[in-house]
Amino acid sequence: MEISQYLSVFMDECQEHLLTLNQSLLELEHNPDSSGILDKIFRAAHTLKGASATMGFNKMADLTHAMEDVLSKLRAKEMSLTADMMNTLFEAVDLLEILTNKIGEGKEEDIEISGVVQELRHFVTADTAVVKVERRQKLQLRYLEAEKEQIAAAMDQGAKLYHVDVTLADDCLLKGARVFMVLREIEKKGTVIRSIPTVKELEDENFELRFIIGCVSAATAGEIHKAVYNISDVANVEVEEVPLDEIQLEKRVQDAADHDKTKISSNPTVRVEIRKLDDLMNLVAELVINRSRLESLGSTLRSKELNEVVEQVGRLTLDLRDSVLKARMVPVETVFSRFPRLVRDLSKELGKQIELEIFGGETELDRTVIDEIGDPLVHIIRNAIDHGIEGIEQRRATGKPEQGKITLNAYQEGNNVIITVTDDGRGFDPKRVREKALRLGLVSPEILSEMPDEQILDFTFLPGFSTADKVTDVSGRGVGMDVVKTKVDSLGGLVHIESELGEGSRIVIRLPLTLAIIQTLMVQLGKEIYAIPSSYIDQITSLNRTDIKRVRKQEVFMLRGEVIPLIRLQDVLEIPDAKNSYFDELDVVVLKVGERLIGCVVDGLLRQQDVVIKSLGGFLGAIKGIAGATILGDGRVALILDIRAVA
């Protein structure tokens, strides 16, 4: 078999099963008696074992095999889940993730797995004796709904339900024959409904020495006991009469039926490499540009037929663009799912009690953004656990519940997705941030004294800026909030901090839905045309020159009772031939950057337009205030404004 041909499929499946293992183990930790969760974990481990063995990745196969043995014992109630067992299962999943990553890089890393494998095997072998005793105590008959109806009908005829608990002698050599005789005696007096193990397993001698038979009979318990106890090699018999209302139903069968229904109703899917979607997006982007050229031609030639065709092409292009964008969308849950494990491990390491709440996991983002936003979120959450949430004693002393809380939330707002990380810890201390900023000489005391707290907290995004007393293993290891901001900026997003000292903090990240095609407002400045991303536009207004006032050399105007600073884009972009300085009526685009509003004066407003972002390339490099360029319908190039730099 050509392994490389199937490697990408194998990797995709590995990631899915590892995600399932991590999530389900966390659930199992809170619900150790849930057979449904155990089944789910077992299926994932079993599938991984089979797939890795087929592909020849023996370490992964050995590790999953050891996990499977433990899970089998847990499913059969032959041993109980312990904290040590839970930790070892998590360690095994960690090793599987490392192995998977290395396989994806083209090599199976020489990672030592024998320690974890031996530990898993120890759980299986060490507790066997104890487990057998526990199993004896836990054998319990459960019935299907139909069997319960059958029992009820028999009871209406005067029969009773008995559980006949039989133990054969230790030296019994013909267990199958003894079981046959027991069943025959019971069937002489009534009807066998169910047994543990099943009748087939009993006939195959696939049991230890003990079995339980559920039967309905008109005979008394004493008559049944006597009939069974007289059989050779039967060491002990206990007969218990069970009332109808104490019958326990088999839930797993119902769960399986529900699962099948879900499976039938789900939509068929197909795996597509992200590279192919990128290629498709590039083609759509070229189509959008040429649509703009056609619109320009139609307008110039004033041809009715051409305009009709252009309108039709424009509609189809829009539908195609939306379809491709949707195909690239991935729920943020794929990123969020890694954090419950992170919070669990770190809170245990630091001796804290922290609950993680996740909302909005179904919110979708472009796959490119999803791939990039994981690391910044990891750092924010690690910081919240280490520096934000107080220790148990400190929380108790301040009247807070011992268990801290981190809330991860995502939701869509227009063409943006907002992700917030909120904690109920100690919050940021603006005083300490201010002192640190002064000590580092980042700003003069006069300017600092006029800065609001929210703006002061932005200093924490600067490289090397930290108010932590000491660097710990959890955070402060050379990865700071500046990395978070740099990454969010590179994605065209915004990040800011809201905090109340002693009450907690909230870090808000605003991300664009997609990076390839954006909606813009085209504006004129001098002879040039610029594109302003619509996601930043709060509103468009018109100002009379007399409405503009000056406060400390800054032009401002009033909007809905609020003083808004006004900037002239020609000053920021150094455009000498801008004309708005001579206008009495000014077109102003009001931009919203974070929570701030700012007015931008332009020469004229042209139109709204979808544009394809093109990089300026390495030759031009990064130009302040410019995020990229796009090609207009007439072939000219328009620059796309980087609003964060402009504002």
From TrEMBL:
Domain Histidine kinase: 269-515
Residues with PTM Phosphohistidine: 46
SUPFAM superfamilies per the UniProt record, alphabetical: ATPase domain of HSP90 chaperone/DNA topoisomerase II/histidine kinase, CheW-like, CheY-binding domain of CheA, Histidine-containing phosphotransfer domain, HPT domain, Homodimeric domain of signal transducing histidine kinase
Pfam family, one: HATPase_c
Record keywords, A-Z: ATP-binding, Chemotaxis, Kinase, Nucleotide-binding, Phosphoprotein, Transferase, Two-component regulatory system
Keyword flag Ligase: no
GO molecular function: ATP binding; phosphorelay sensor kinase activity
Domain CheW-like span(s) in chain numbering: 517-647
Keyword hit for Kinase: yes
GO BP of this protein: chemotaxis
PROSITE patterns registered for this protein in UniProt: CHEW, HIS_KIN, HPT
Gene Ontology CC entries for this record: cytoplasm
Listed EC numbers: 2.7.13.3
Enzyme class, broadest EC rank: transferase
Reaction equations catalysed: ATP + protein L-histidine = ADP + protein N-phospho-L-histidine
Occurrences of domain HPt (ranges): 1-103
Protein name as it appears in the record: Chemotaxis protein CheA
Organism: Hydrogenispora ethanolica
